[in-house]
Carbamoyl phosphate synthase small chain
Amino acid sequence: MRTQSLILEDKTILTGESFGAQTDASGEVVFNTGMVGYPETFTDPSYHGQILVLTYPLIGNYGVETNSKLKTKDLFSHSFESEKIQIAGLIVREYCKEYSHPQAKQSLENWLKSEGVPAIEGVDTRALTEKLREKGTMLGRITNDKLTKYTFKDPNKQNLVAEVSCKEPIVYEPNTVKIEKQKNTILLYDCGVKLNIIRCLIKRGCRVIRVPWNFELTNYEKIRINGIVISNGPGDPAKCDKTIEQIKNQLAISNPSFLIPILGICLGNQLLALACGAKTYKLKYGHRSQNQPVIDELRNRAYITTQNHGYAVNEKTVPKGWRVWFRNLNDGTVEGLWHQHYPWMSVQFHPEAAPGPTDTEWVFDEWISMINSNE
């Protein structure tokens, strides 16, 4: 196997063996503490532009469940969260060459190579994670060459959402045979949506219209929309100006008869906050794991959640009328907002999980009940 190096912006050089594509990659180096779920994690669009460090030492032991490129019609027969690998590169302590799982079709190594994603094993990921926790996320570069001068690409200076969002509207019909009442039509702003969000809406009898991040809502003014979901996604939320503008227009509607219930998820929480006048800021090293504890401040109940984000809402800037719904029990950051008078709510974590606990999937039920009571 050939060697590859991870070069950090503080000039640290970590060398290991390559088991992915023989190519260079640049991005923001972040870490995730999850023990399972690497296919879901790698295909999560929120990781677009990032070099991912996995703290769990052994990766690849159960292979990958498909050996071909996914097509739109196949997306709901697999656990993937998008059509392709989204991470820019991968760093692990040990790659398991012998995989075993009844549904596995290929090795992780072959999958990474087929998608053109570089990966390095043999790196002390514990030491690397400690460095990222102490100094914060850093830019990095995976390279085959011994360079004396390095160039790094900061993905947060780009509009990453525009790169991962769908280009045209896509309609998903509910797959339930029996629906007790008229199905709800949900407009989903695709800012890098995880497919499990769509799965969670569909299995609750919702018809989902997935639209690009810069979609003008007036284009659908003749269609009865029962709710709006703002999805997760990568990068700096402030770059997502077109989505913020559309949300702001909805929040400005004063006639209660035309108010549309809104649910923001992950990046959607930050975009809803920016639209209502709050501010966001970059976290030191973000929240990326399957065991982030949050507390529901309306009910005083704690949950374990899956999270993947590098920005947070500045609580001091949240305007009157909004309440903090969830709070992170590790660092006290805002994990969700709730409007006291209007049907608008958001969560910073992933209620759809995948991978991770499903403890908070009830958020979808609560929001849909809000839609039904709003009609």
